[in-house]
UniProtKB/TrEMBL annotation:
Protein's UniProt name: Putative Rif11 homolog
Organism of derivation: Rhodococcus wratislaviensis
Source superkingdom: Bacteria
Molecular function per GO: oxidoreductase activity, acting on paired donors, with incorporation or reduction of molecular oxygen
Length: 98
């Protein structure tokens, strides 16, 4: 998408709408449950790698977002309302490290 924006790419705010936020100490087990719920359409590694699902401790989720920002250029992040409370500490962590 960035290459289609051409010279304006750096001026565009790139949005990410996170679909699911799961706080856990066992990322792999939680990702496995998510993959099962999705009927096998995504592997565990796909769940852990997609920018649309955050899984892990607050620090791990903050690191996921930093990594996705670096890879894809996201500058604006939104989560669905049911995940606001679990996501708030992640935002605090990102702000502390900025």
């Amino acid at each position: 998408m960035r290459n289609h924006a051409g010279a304006r790419a750096e001026d565009i705010e790139w949005h990410l709408l996170v679909q699911l936020v799961v706080e856990t100490d066992d990322r792999r087990a939680a990702a496995n449950e998510i993959a099962d719920r999705l009927g096998g359409t995504l592997s565990v590694d796909d769940v852990l790698g997609t920018p649309y699902v955050l899984v892990g401790t607050v620090e791990e989720m903050a690191e996921q977002l930093r990594s996705h920002r670096d890879r894809y250029g996201f500058s604006y992040i939104t989560v669905h309302e049911p995940y606001l409370e679990v996501f708030a500490p992640v935002i605090r962590r990102l702000r502390e490290q900025s």
